[in-house]
Amino acid sequence: MSDANASTTAPVAVRCARCQSALGESERVPAGDRVFCRTCFDIVKLQTRTGVAARSDSINYPVAAVGAILGGAVGALAWWGVTVLTHIGFGLVAVVIGLLVGHGTLRFAGGKRGVGLQALAVVVGALSFLVAVFLVNMTFLNAALAQRGDAFRVTFPPPSLEAFYRVITANFGIMKLVFLAIIVYEAWFILRPIKPPVAQ
Prior knowledge:
The chain has 2 domains: 14-55, no CATH class; 58-190, no CATH class. α3 runs antiparallel to α4 (95-108), α4 packs across α5 and α4 (95-108) packs parallel to α7. The protein contains 7 helices and 4 strands, in the order αββββαααααα. It is mainly α. The relative contact order is 0.14. It has helices at 2-8, 38-56, 61-86, 95-108, 115-148, 161-168, 174-190; strands at 14-15, 22-23, 29-31, 34-36. The strands form 2 sheets. A two-stranded antiparallel sheet has the order 1-2. The longest helix is centred in the middle third of the chain and has 34 residues, at 115-148.
């Protein structure tokens, strides 16, 4: 009976997540949810740094910009399409723009990340949101003009920057600023550089 209890309470050896060698208390290097020996931790850290450096070098920004613009266009059209079909401006749908711009940039950049790509995605995401706001407001304004019997229509593309500004600011309240902030955050977060493991 005592032997059985001893076997069930015997300490389980802590092993390195990479080489599986048993580690004493002083040999353990915890990193995140895993434990390494000192040698393996240094190897993993070097591999991660090399991989991070490779993902930030030789970025094809024109191709990445195409991915960002395509993502922004799809997101803007999705929000506008939902508005046209439902006749309700669901602002929360605009959040999709940030996701599509971020992932479009990441995919067309070949999985590379970096501050430059983050800045690109943020700019494209913000511009795509403003275009989407214009399209949504254009829909509501034209519907109101039609009800009044007015022959004038808001067109896309707008005839001038002033016309673009007037349309997007027609009902630009605090919630639209919140959605814009979410879009910018998503675009920035998706393309954040990967950090090497840190010993705890």
